[in-house]
Amino acid sequence: MESNNYNDPAMIGGCSVPVRVNRKSKADPTVVKVSGIPIGPSGVVIIAGPCAVENNEQLLETAKSVKTAGGVLLRGGAFKPRSSPYNFQGLGEEGVKMLRDVSRETGLPFVTEVMDTRQVAFVAEYADMLQVGSRNMQNYPLLKEVGLQRKPVLLKRGMMATIEEFLLAAEYILNQGNEQVVLCERGIRTFETTTRNTLDLSAVPMLKHLCHLPVIVDPSHGTGHRWMVPTMAKAAVAAGADGLIMEVHYKPEEALCDGYQSLSPDEFSKLMADLRKVAQAVGREIYQHD
Ligand code: PEP
Ligand code: MN
After folding, report:
1. Residue ranges in the chain modelled with pLDDT below 70
2. Per-residue pLDDT, 208
3. Which of 113, 147, 152 is nearest to 133 (CA)?
4. Measured in angstroms, how far is the CA atom of residue 11 from the centroid of ligand 1?
């Protein structure tokens, strides 16, 4: 048993860090390779794309703009966790196939969400990276199932999860033999109502202090406001994030999901230029595909 020593990185404020994700168990930071793209200390990886896959034109045009601006991974939800059962639920398997086609056309590997153990084998066959969303961070059968895959996993922090619970969720995946896990801070629920979530940027240095896995930030769900995304994206890079995942839509005003927090291609392109400066100022660089 660890003693409750506050100088011990494994025990901070009562947070006990599980063994496999613990930084003490592995000297070097983990680099997660997503179809050749390294997420880790090397460069800041930019993941962008629509909240949901809607149709081929929307996905392709958005993906092209992401690529032109310098994004290196495509995001897009096909199995969507929607708060209301009456909202667009995503295109399911058809959407995953669309992602695969657009990924091939643009050369951008993609990440997409799995919500259910029954979807994992199918999605793992197509996707370059599997996303476990905030609402499923403590879905233990799902964590075990993605842990059995040999595909990298993007694990989003539960909206009500402590750092310790977040790390324990990651430990479930590593325990199954899959060490390719990227942690994503996407905002937590607080008493604040002006933002969709409270983006906990202090989670970035804390997670990196406690654990060897790469940490990325989602300023789109973290704020819920398009106009706030650039500011918090820059702040996340300054805070040491190894990457960002952001919602971009070729016509945000027509988006079927989360348009209000999605950047237009022009806004995304301008942000990329600013991010390069911020990364440089903190001794890092934005990862570029050659
Ligand atoms: C998403 O990234 O598509 C998403 C639904 O985010 P979260 O799980 O963080 O709410
Ligand atoms: Mn969304």
Report:
1. 1-14
2. 97
3. 113
4. 29
Residues 62-72 have pLDDT tens digits of: 999 999 999 99
Pocket test for ligand 1, best of 80, 110, 156, 196 (most atoms within 8 A of CB): 156
Would you state the pLDDT for residue 10?
52
pLDDT tens figures, 221-250 = 999 999 999 999 999 999 999 999 999 999
Cα(10) to centroid(ligand 2), Å: 33
Nearest ligand 1 atom to alpha carbon 81: 5
Measured from CB, residues less than 6 Å from any atom of ligand 1 are: 51, 77, 81, 113, 133-135, 156, 186, 218, 221
Q: In sequence order, what DSSP letters do the residues of 179-199 get, joined into one string?
A: --EEEEE--B--S--SSSSB-
| pLDDT reported for residue 5 | 47
Tokens of 287: 């990862």
